[in-house]
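Open question from group meeting: does this chain pack into something compact, or does most of it stay loose? Before anyone orders reagents, we agreed to write out a predicted structure and look at it together. Recording both the input and the output here so the notebook holds the full record.
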Amino acid sequence: MSPTPHPPRQAPGAPRDLVGIGIGPFNLSLAALAHPLTELDTVFYEQRPGFDWHPGLLIDGATIQVPFLADLVTLADPASDWTFLNYLKARDRLFPFYFAERFHIQRAEYDAYCRWVSENLPALHFGHQVDAVRWNPERDVFEVDFTQLDADGEAEARGCTCTKNIVLGVGTEPYVPDPLRPLLEAPGAPVVHAARYLDHRDAFLAADHITVVGSGQSGAEVFLDLLRHRPAGREKIHWIGRTEAFAPMEYSKLGLEHFTPDYTRYFHALAEPVRDQLVTSQWQLHKGIDADTIAAIRDELYRRTLHGGWPDAVLTPGVHVRTAGRVATTRVELHLEHVQQGTRTRLTTDAVVLATGYRERPLTRLLAGLDPYLRRDNSERPRIDEQFRLVLDPSVTTTGCHVYVQNAELHTHGVGAPDLGLAAWRSATILNSLTGKEPYPLPTRTAFTTFGLEPQPNRQVKTLTPLVDLR
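Structure tokens returned:
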């Protein structure tokens, strides 16, 4: 598909309508939905040379945990040029997909779809590192400093863009707990975060004994991949995690309604202490393991008992890594504690995969220039309104200028913040807010569950007029 280039929409020197910082799936969704809005002047910057989505975890057969309809645009505009189905059509793959009867696509295919969109949107600028953001009160605009990078990632040129609005989509970064960080800094046995697993997969398969730390989806996928490629009876794999069980993700039909706009609005209206407690308690909604992966692990383990004996694989939940260190530079020693038993032991291993999750990338450096205008909550986190805007001083917002965020609002909007299924709805909400119009009409009700006793407005069901009178 060749995008239709937009003609110049504003006078030279005029500020842009929107600058996006970061090009992951969420800002890519926003760029795709903004593309047909020809009255908007938008640009998106990303320091990487091209789009990639968790390349170290594109394990063969691993699927995304939302249906294919949760692509970049469909749930806001199913007639968009940038739907997953249109991607298949452009690749002449509609019929193969139809007969595959897959509701959940492989992670590698989702990555390829996003890359197709990113290569066809003219507003995206890869190889551009954003260095600073500040408010210019004399011109009532934000100023965004950036560095253009060459093919080697070295600075090539510097620039500055003025804009009325900004959207931050800088994503998350791999998280490693403090007791495990020394392992990454010392040479010797292979120890990597799961985000880089495929880059080092051969070294792990060659190791005599492997340990996977982390009981979420990434840990399960890495464990399953290693298990399938180790010789029967000589697997020599440990899988440990802090949770009380290798628990399935909550995937009941009503449970999934926690990932609807209805629940997001309900969560946002709760008191801050209640929201903080809920985020902690709802881990199984988004940090558990999907049932198919659990079943595949159990099936693989069972298959290896066919000729007698048990596989040399140890799966232990409820385990906390107290400390860790190197042993003779070539091995790793983990000091473990079982939370429920209160017992301790040591585990010596030749390689470690840290499937310890991701955390929101800190915005402190990027937003340092806006700090005087930024309003924070009781925990010093940025306050974010219902329309995904940072709460800034009125001297900024009364000019009609705003900073929007994507996937940095877990503390204000709940478990749906990192969920791909809400990407299109959030992008449409941002564009409706930014334009002051409704280019993307959104549903007034999205869940059968009523979250709370307070009546929720705009939940009436519209009566449709039939196209044909059948009397």
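Observations to bring back to the group:
Residues 4-9, 459-471 have pLDDT under 50 and may be disordered.
The longest strand covers residues 128-136.
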